[in-house]
């Protein structure tokens, strides 16, 4: 059996500690990208990302017949609509808001049993009284309509709150 001398063991432990320290320091100092930024999600040139060809995504901007969903129209000021949307998202089961900006909200929703993750996005353009939205599963070909139903339930909740 191979054994390290005490000096080599000490040097090895010191090296591991340095690597861990540098990794933690860099992760705190260097700007981190969010999942939305690193995955191609988010708003680019005033539009949410298009859906892939799979049947597990809906989008309110530039969607084809299979993926299209209507945006949510509102009649209150944009800040009130955004605030109300954030409140609604707090009661959507297994949903967590990960990023919120003045005109963009990014959340994830997890399926009940297998914990599959869906990316859920909302865009409130400055010159329109609508909330554009996109919901897409990260894996699989079909979501059995879950993403569309989720967004329609959010639409109904916002309608009930008179936005």
SSE pattern, N- to C-terminal: HHEEEEHEEEEH
**Can you tell me the residue ranges where pLDDT is under 50 for at least 5 consecutive residues?**
26-38
Distance between the termini: 72 Å
Q: Kindly estimate the percentage of residues that lie in beta strands according to DSSP.
A: 15-25%
- Describe the global form: elongated
Provide the structure class: alpha+beta
Structural features:
two-stranded antiparallel ribbon, 163 residues, 8 strands, 4 helices, alpha+beta, 34% helix
Describe this structure as you would to a colleague.
The structure is a single chain. This protein is of the alpha+beta class and 163 residues long. 34% of the residues lie in helices and 23% in strands. The chain contains four helices and eight strands. It has helices spanning 6-29, 35-38, 78-89, 146-160, and strands at residues 43-44, 47-48, 57-59, 72-73, 95-100, 104-110, 117-123, 130-137. The strands form two sheets. Strands 3, 4, 5, 6, 7 and 8 form a six-stranded antiparallel beta sheet that branches. It has a two-stranded antiparallel sheet with strand order 1-2. A hairpin with a 2-residue loop joins strand 1 and strand 2 (47-48). It starts with 5 loop residues before the first helix and ends with a helix. The relative contact order is 0.17. Mean pLDDT is 87; it is low at 26-38.
């Amino acid at each position: 059996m191979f054994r390290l001398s005490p000096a080599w063991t000490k040097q090895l432990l010191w090296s591991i500690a340095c690597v861990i320290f540098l990794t933690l320091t860099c992760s705190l100092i260097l700007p981190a990208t969010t999942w939305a930024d690193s995955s191609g999600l988010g708003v680019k040139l005033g539009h949410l990302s298009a859906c892939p060809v799979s049947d597990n995504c809906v989008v309110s901007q530039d969607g084809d017949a299979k993926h299209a969903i209507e945006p949510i129209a509102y009649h209150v000021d944009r800040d009130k609509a955004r605030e109300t949307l954030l409140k609604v998202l707090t009661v959507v089961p297994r949903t967590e808001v990960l990023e919120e900006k003045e005109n963009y909200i990014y959340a994830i929703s997890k399926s009940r049993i297998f914990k599959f993750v869906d990316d859920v996005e909302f865009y409130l353009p400055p010159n329109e009284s609508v909330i554009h939205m996109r919901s897409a599963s990260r894996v699989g070909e079909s979501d059995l309509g879950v993403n569309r139903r989720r967004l329609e339930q959010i639409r109904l909740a916002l309608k009930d709150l008179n936005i």
